[in-house]
Fold this protein.
Amino acid sequence: MSDPHTPADRLRFKPYPGPAAGWGALRAVTDHWFESKQPFKNLFAMVKTNKSNGFDCPGCAWGEAPQGGMIKFCENGAKAVNWEATSRRVDAAFFEKHSVSDLLKQDDYWLEFQGRLTEPMVYNRATDHYEPIRWDDAFALIARHLNGLDNPHQAAFYTSGRASNEAAFLYQLFVRAFGTNNFPDCSNMCHEASGVALAESIGTGKGTVTFEDFDKADALFLFGQNPGTNHPRMLEPIRDAVKRGAQVAVFNPLRERGLERFQAPQDPKEMLTGGSSPLNTAYFRPALGGDMAAVRGMVKWLLQWDREATESSGAPVFDHAFIAEHTTGLDDYLAEVDATSWERIEAQSGLSRGVIEQAARIHRDSKRVIICWAMGITQHKHSVPTIQEIANLQLLRGQFGEGAGLCPVRGHSNVQGDRTVGIADEPPAALLDALEKRFGFQPPREPGYNVITTLQAMVARKLKVFLALGGNFAQATPDTPRTHEALRSCDLTVQISTKLNRSHLVGGTEALILPCLGRTDIDRQAGGAQGVTVEDSFSMVHISHGQLKPLSEQMRSEPAILAGIAEATLGKTPVDWSALVEDYDRIRDLIQDTIAGFENFNERLKHPGGFYLGNPARDHQWHTDSGRAFLAANSLPDTLVDDGILARGDTPDLVLQTLRSHDQYNTTIYGLHDRYRGVHNGRKVVFANAADIQRLGFKAGDKIDLVSLWRDGVERRVSDFTLLEYDVPAGQAAAYYPETNPLVPMDSYGDGSFTPTSKLIAIRLEASRAPARIA
Ligand SMILES: Nc1nc2c(c(=O)[nH]1)N[C@H]1C(S)=C(S)[C@@H](COP(=O)(O)OP(=O)(O)OC[C@H]3O[C@@H](n4cnc5c(=O)[nH]c(N)nc54)[C@H](O)[C@@H]3O)O[C@H]1N2
Ligand SMILES: Nc1nc2c(c(=O)[nH]1)N[C@H]1C(S)=C(S)[C@@H](COP(=O)(O)OP(=O)(O)OC[C@H]3O[C@@H](n4cnc5c(=O)[nH]c(N)nc54)[C@H](O)[C@@H]3O)O[C@H]1N2
Ligand SMILES: [Mo]
């Protein structure tokens, strides 16, 4: 990893010959260790990652093998830990040296690289510098703004998915006692569609499988995810599945190395002999947004075979007993399947009927099937119907229970837990009832703002205060220039953060930075060192204890900061906030009193590995209105490119997906390499295929601008990107997020999910207007 102070080397693009993980990963881990400037301290901490007496990895939300090996972290977990546990500091002296205007000229990589935020700061508009502020004065400033609003809905409260259950619970209690459900969160940009779709289809928004189920499945289907980079600990169960003869069918337009071959760093033989193991048995490459059509095609084949079996008295393909006992909507759904033509399916999925038949056979011939998915499925306009189609496939074949089910692979390490403990702009009535009963105040019942409606409210100048518990709202959200302008229009913005990022630089008239402890830091309160809890993708709740001494005494824990804000704003109602923070067991007692599944919370945490919250659908309990699972009969979308664009007469050159490189964690850029895709020393690149590049009159290596097409006719452009020839299906392109977020219009979002359509943006390519950069 290079120091961002030195001018970057020239962009290099060379295919990576190796398997995923292996020596490349070990080398990268070592680099990041030394980069942190405290390698030995962090090594000690790393050994404790994901152990029952250590801390939960702040990387992704993948779960733990209950038996577990000695080393329980991966390359990207190591990067996440070393990035947080650095000895570099962004303190008063740093802000005295750099004005906000100067900092705005730096890129996202440089900003976070500067180190940990170590003291509370307030923006001084007159000098354009952040200056130190006492904690109590910061809390008083926030309280003054909040209590001065015409109504509580003029404030919005963002959450990023690293916040612990304890912090998130206090936060939602405070915000609801204050009077609003304005809870935009990172989930709105991530797996929201999974929650919305599954709640209607199977009565729970969460995945139905456990870690152990992966060992029992006969087939895994992996849709729209890149585990080699984003969930590296998932590679082992995938490799093991292939090894024991299970089928692993991948749906991804790109040939991702982390879905092809794996060299296990924990396997000395593989490491020393240069061996590696395959990660799939079949690879399907659909059109962007074509998965719903592909799954519809699979169902069409299975339906045909099931009918043939009935006629010939052969073995049925569908689980008719399961369907009869547990589902509704069968006739309407099958009518919809029959009405969908193969021409339509082939055109939209980008896969031929014969290729889809192979995928359908894998499903048919496997007794137990798990289907996993991530952002390639959830960030489309029609993500909710796509996920319901996946659920339908599993319902028709009775795939709920041991070794079978649905697995939305979550992103942030506690994004699922945050929702469980109440971070929701449309909270369930049961939660509000429980809060009312336990705390004796009337929580607001009207839905609040999500990410998109927060942005729209800011643009309409209806929002005055914006507070963020973590994350980087300015860069993670779509339509960057408009979003920045919207944030600047607020009276007050508050960022509770570990690291400096652009959200601190595009603040409101008044702006605060409140530095907090991270997962790796020891959190000492009056009652001693505290642990916090998180929930993984498999609904396992466990405790996490920080291991490293915080860089500064001025940093506070997230619960302590939230308690300070709450007490300054509301006084000691409805709870004694500061008393709760003395001992987090007290916060967990309140979670136990109000959130289902947390009985004996503190007691059950003592069990190594934590406890399972359970999943009703796994047990064939359907918490839907009808009490049964629902086979939703959605039609395929008319067009994948928004018809408003086509109505304007615009025709796109390509459709673009925005994705993660290997060296980033969302808006946090760890380095300028995307090892498995062979890109080094740069991020402003676009992947497109040779025929498309030629058709559009360019050549590989050209400098280009990307312009997105949208019905409002506003120009959205990013400049000075390098065109790379890559194995991408025809008509598609891919480029990194967040650099391409200016291209995503804030009004382009998923139906029912409000998730920005980050995986399908209609674009045109233009020769770059930007002057060539002089090396
Ligand atoms: N190291 C690291 N780990 C992370 C993160 C990180 O940034 N870095 N982010 C975390 C978070 S918050 C999340 S949500 C997850 C994200 O994890 P992923 O969902 O794996 O992240 P993306 O990079 O967005 O990858 C999307 C994948 O879907 C494919 N894809 C895109 N469009 C389509 C489509 O229409 N159909 C199909 N079938 N495939 C498609 C892309 O080719 C790509 O392989 O990772 C989490 N873990
Ligand atoms: N175009 C496009 N846009 C996307 C996506 C995409 O695929 N394409 N993906 C979307 C997805 S899936 C997601 S989840 C969002 C991510 O959106 P966010 O969660 O808002 O963004 P992050 O980049 O994860 O936030 C990084 C910042 O979090 C702060 N931080 C880190 N750890 C902690 C902590 O322990 N506590 C606190 N308080 N702060 C901490 C640091 O200051 C750091 O700068 O982006 C979304 N945006
Ligand atoms: Mo995410």
